[in-house]
Write a structure and sequence with these properties.
Layout: H1 3-23, H2 28-70, H3 76-116, H4 119-136, H5 156-169
Helix pairs in contact: 1-2, 1-3, 1-5, 2-3, 3-5
Length: 170
């Protein structure tokens, strides 16, 4: 992986981290700028091969996060930001960041649940919805009925450490 691409993308992740913590929202200008600069820089430095690399990375990051968006796990800003990250760093690195971010997100989620002392209620809810799905084969039972029941936190809290882990281990 190119060092310049790691640091270039980190600038956009830092901006997204700050705005996500403050407003639980990632502005489009950050995501679009990350995507455009990733495509242009790869295309300029490596030519058509670099542009293809960036397009494949952007598509992979976008597609995987889009699935997570439809499941209600992330917001639309995260989806667009991962397209920009993929343009900078490619398919493999994007998939690694997604994997580590999901793991960090699970840890953060459990820390929040344990600190609020709602573990028992949430576990009963998960078990009852899963059992209902297995017995009735109705996928709607897996989704939470109330939006207030969803555990919400800025996903960038998990993405930034996931990004750094992917860099260290890749």
């Amino acid at each position: 992986m190119a060092e310049w691409a790691f640091w270039g993308c980190l600038i956009f992740l830092g901006a997204a981290f700050i705005t996500d913590l403050r407003r639980m929202r990632i502005p489009n200008w950050i995501s679009v700028l990350a995507l455009v600069t990733g495509l242009c820089s790869r295309g300029f430095i490596y030519g058509w091969h670099g542009l293809l690399f960036a397009l494949c990375g952007a598509s992979a990051g976008f597609a995987v996060l889009l699935l997570m968006y439809f499941m209600g796990a992330v917001g639309a800003g995260d989806v667009k930001l991962f397209a920009g990250m993929g343009a900078w760093l490619g398919v493999w690195f994007s998939l690694q960041v997604i994997m580590y971010s999901v793991l960090f997100g699970a840890v953060i989620g459990w820390i929040i649940v344990l600190s609020r002392r709602e573990t028992g209620r949430r576990m009963r809810n998960i078990i009852s919805r899963t059992a209902g799905f297995l017995l009735l084969r109705n996928p709607a039972l897996l989704r939470s009925g109330k939006d207030s029941e969803m555990l919400r936190f800025p996903f960038m809290l998990a993405v930034l450490p996931g990004y750094l882990c992917a860099y260290v281990y890749l």
